[in-house]
Amino acid sequence: MQRDVAVAAYWLDEAASRSELVSQLSALLSDLPILIAAVPKGAFDDANGIIDDLAKTISDNVEWFGEEKRTAITRDEKFSLVLVSKRSLGVPQLSSPVTLPDWFPQWPCELLTVTIKNVTDSIDISFASPDIPVASINASLHALESALCARLASVYGRAPTAAAKLRARLGGSKGPVDLIHLISQSEDKRRRVAPDDFRPGGSASGEYLVSRLFSQWWECSHKDLHNLAVDIAEALDIHTGSNVEAQHSLASLLTRTVKPKLADTPPGVTLARNAIVSLAHAIQFTNAVHHAGDYPNFPAVLTISYAKDLSRSCKRAAAALGNLA
């Protein structure tokens, strides 16, 4: 006779180390009737064999079903299987029920009918999570700071007036900032900190160029963001021509601005806009990490992917500037 059994199955995507995640989850859930298993290559890729693969996974992990686990299953009248995979479960679940092994606790030889639920997008994490690549963001900001300083110094040496508008912005009411002094100050400070530990902050009087640019972004209106990008591009001598390619991060694409349209904007100005928005979001993100208790949890996939996009964007901007003659 067929009846429903309290067996649940969940799918969890993990692009990094499956074995490490399996170990971590197994330790965390050790007192619960939850089996954590890595999905082997070739399994769960046939719509007609999903339940068969599920039953095989259970049988392959027979050693997990020791006395303690059997007692937990009987006690809770539940059993859950978490499948950790490098890929998403991309096939429909069409297979027929299969019979549980005769040694299975609580429901031996019962028919197994279960739908695997993907819970990857349901997991929330704190900004304090070690899964967030903070060191990568720090290093990318360090690389961008280095590239900005080198390019500005190079352009300023041959065309001092190119940075006039940017210097005026950075100096504010005190008058144009001494750009060479700021660059020298940044270089001196950067020599004392490892890239992975670089945390510039966003002070308007900060000792790093990215800190000063963050402050400009923070105070900048949507209407003035394009003008700020133009001033930065002019100081970098990338405001005309096509000596660089336009770059886009998710942060910059989602930041509203005014005309001109993206298609009508010089690539260098788009790169400058992308760089300042990305570095600003990166600094804001790392600040949140260091004050994680002040913020709620957010979806893990979104948080980690966004952190990676910020890091990638800052690194790409640094590389583009570094490749200029």
From TrEMBL:
Q: At the top level of its lineage, which domain of life is listed?
A: Bacteria
Stated name of the protein: Uncharacterized protein
- Origin species, per record, is Sphaerotilus mobilis
Native organism taxonomy: Bacteria, Pseudomonadati, Pseudomonadota, Betaproteobacteria, Burkholderiales
